[in-house]
TrEMBL record, chain A:
It holds the Pfam family ChlI. Keywords: ATP-binding, Nucleotide-binding. The keyword Glycoprotein does not apply. It comes from Candidatus Staskawiczbacteria bacterium RIFCSPLOWO2_01_FULL_33_9. One of its GO terms (molecular function) is DNA binding. InterPro entries: AAA+_ATPase, CHLI-like, MCM_dom, Mg_chelat-rel, Mg_chelat-rel_C, Mg_chelatse_chII-like_cat_dom, P-loop_NTPase, Ribosomal_Su5_D2-typ_SF. The lineage of its organism: Bacteria, Candidatus Staskawicziibacteriota. Belongs to the Mg-chelatase subunits D/I family. ComM subfamily. This is Magnesium chelatase. Residues 211-394 form the AAA+ ATPase domain. PANTHER family: COMPETENCE PROTEIN COMM, MAGNESIUM-CHELATASE SUBUNIT CHLI.
Amino acid sequence: MLIKVLSVVNLGLETVKVDVEVNLANRGLPGFEIVGLPDKAVDESKERVRAAILSSGVDFPAKKITVNLAPADIQKEGSLYDLPIAVGILSSVLKFSIPDKSLFLGELSFDGSLRHTKGALLMALFAKESGFLNLFVPKDSANEAVAVKGIKVFPVDNLIQLAGYFLKKKNIEPVLYQKIINELPAPAEFDMKEVLGQEQAKRAMEIAAAGGHNIIMVGSPGSGKTMLARALPGILPPLNETESLEVTKIYSVAGNISPGGSLITTRQFRSPHHTASLVGLIGGGTKPHPGEVSLAHRGVLFLDEFNEFPHNVMEAMRQPLEDGYLTISRSKQRVVYPADFMLVASANPCPCGYLNHPKKNCVCAMRQIKKYQKRISGPILDRIDLHIAILPVDTTEFSDNQKNSELLESSNQIKQRVVFAREKQESRFDKDSIQSNAQMKNSHIKKYCKLTKDIEELLHRASIKFQLSARSYMKTIKVARTIADLDDSEEITISHMAEALQYKPKIYESA
Amino acid sequence: MLKLKNMDKIVTIENKNYPKLLKEIGNETPKKLYYKGEWNMDIFENCLAVVGSRHLTSYGRKVTEQLVTEIAASGITIVSGFMYGGDEAAHQATVKIGGRTIAVMPCGIDIIHPEYQEKLYYEILENKGLIISELEGKFLPVNWTYARRNRIVAGLSKAILVVEAGLNSGSLITAKYAKKYGRKIFAVPGQITSDVSKGTIKLIKEGAEVATEAGDILKYYNVSSTLSKLQKPSFNTSKEEQKIIEQLKREPMEVDTLSRTLGISAAKIGTTLSLMQLKGFINQESGKYYIN
């Protein structure tokens, strides 16, 4: 007797339908075999399925059972085929038919219940594209799948319940699309008002958040670089629905969504340590897995102690910084992962860290300093729009009013301006394939950043005086555009441009 | 051949062209000097050694530029050690005004050290300056060559100007040699809290003359300044700019402090500062703004 149950396989972010063909032969010695390029996890599903069926009070058929996962030439991995295989066997034993246009996914526990399984969102998106109607997924993973419109998601608790449903003895209430409204602000470790002083750095953070600009902070240890970066999530605009789906897809593939979790609606803040490996940061492995750059998609990638990162890791970030995606090529597979993130880097000015420190003396030789600063290559610095020097703050010199953090602007107040500026950008780039000012290419700059004669003159003078490179010149215009957006001005004025010049490359100069 | 080529660029102590002042330092006189550039006797006539800390502050740099520019323009040769920081600032200011300067290297004559100052090295030669060393060929700079080099810097000069110096610095070693050879010592006063002013303050306490303007030094050389008082650009400033200038006149400040003291938002003050910088009123170095 042959039964066909449908499931999927995820190749990176691409989803392919998989036919799980279960054959129960009366001839031959009893046994259980899985074919169709299963990996270890799939192969072990034999034992899980057998135990789960037995625990559900059904006799495991003493027949020669063969499961084929077609197409047979694509490697299958993971535990998601437990459910389709078990459903196939059960339908033969209990004689029920499987509804049409249904997809199954889920890992079984020995007691017959279903566990949270990664990839539910991708399957749901695939189901919608390919015209499937019903999705049977573990209860814990159902929240992911309901983010997609036009499909019925059945949250399955255990095998008995599911069999009962197919035998029309029990009911499972399908869940339809739910618009996920998450009004919760992004969790930030600090509020901007807790950061005393650092007025310019805070302003730079606001601009960076508003325009999606990459930013580098250079300053001595203890000057507040990390605190500023960690306060950043609090002023980031929320993800819109498309972005939210994009991000959740990556997290779903990576298995980074916790049980019961649903769409990710806040911008992610990733801060890998500088000992992170190339594969960990960029993605890869024999089965290409998304790396930190992809997990930071539409969010923030914070690299503390930037110049401590190995050279190859830093250079590998050039493509995602430029293109917003990256291609991982392996002998058997090529996977494209989106990686459109905002880079926030922090670095010390010199090996000892105290160059330009108002109180402590730097003990580094000039040669060491030059060598240290050269560790961040020109091409990387070129892709960073905002450069700020962070000097340590001496709060003993503050007046009581200045020390009172309640009088300072809170993250929420700043966020309102950021959200406003983002909305302006979204409507501006409606017909272009970009979302923020930072992504503007030269053609966009020409179109959206009209400069008057005066401003061009100013910029020209500045580029001579500050020795700006051609790329810095363009970056300054982009930053000025964001400043103008924050100011709710269609025109870029002299003062916008002058402020943008404040964030030109400083200590770390691109050679 | 190589040796012969080097021979061309040596002046020995027996040579009549050997700098007279340097002969006066007794048995410490180098037996021979290797050099690059053109050896003209008149370059040694009026020499002033200008030395400063490797970790020159923005204040030190500003003072060096201001004093050296005027002194070098009056035809005095600036002697220094080609190290980064104070030395480099002195050489730089001299070549900028087209003056002559002598760089005494701590290494063999065929090495540029530090190598990233190569541009300055050639600018010195282009401006008819000299590169001098008592060490031949590719002798690498080591601890003791720096200190030995300093005696030549002091020995060549009638007077020495110490801009900024730590308590345990090469600049003080140069000053010590100068004292030993009976040369005049000028020191620039600085903030008593600054580590790189402690050396100069010590010199002043020990009797060095305080130098606050180029005239102090030029008087000693009996030369009058050829630079008419630097024309300050007429400041046509807004109220806000005026306030900033007032603050910066007192001491250099970073943006955040300015923004706090004046109660102007960081965005607004950044705009003004950029514009003032472009107009040439102020300048920025190591994170702080100061008046030009």
